[in-house]
Amino acid sequence: MAQICSQLVVALGANQPSSAGAPELTLGKAVDALMQSQVVIRAVSPFYRTPCFPAGAGPDYVNAAVALEAPWSPAQALAELHKIENSFGRVRDQRWGQRTLDMDLIAYDDQVAPDLATYTQWRDLNPEAQSLKAPDTLILPHPRLQDRAFVLVPMADIAPDWRHPVSGLTVLQMLAALPKSLRDEVKAL
User: Fold this and answer.
1) Which of 21, 121, 152, 153 has CB 3.0 to 4.6 Å from 175, enough for a Cys bridge?
2) Which intervals hold domain 7,8-dihydro-6-hydroxymethylpterin-pyrophosphokinase (predicted)?
3) 1 is a domain residue
């Protein structure tokens, strides 16, 4: 009997060297690690250099996105991503801090989780609170997706027509809605 697989989008980023080397090498090895863990990689974006977020918090990032199919639940997907992050020396000691590898589950099929009210609460959280608070549960789709060029630019390479299950906007529409200055900060390596 064939396994049922879900469509996932994962954003990758790094701005510190890991055991694999420089951030761009780490991202490549992280994609390799994903391929070893029951998934089918459908697309990998080019790598991009992006300013550290928040500004001045460290070296620039290298970012990318991956579209994949996996037989995991959302919780299993998050656990697998954390396992890969940990294997590259990821330490979770500071919100939005420097990191050897960050792998965010951006989308899982067209699922909104844990529910629309919780998703909306986190999406609408004011910027100051965003820097201080992190959800204690997985929020899908990622509540900052529509605000971040460093996610949307690579995602436009692999899933341009993916439609946000709450806003109804495609990746290309969300990207076009961002200020040009933010889009221009994301530079192909």
Assistant:
1) 152
2) 9-160
3) no
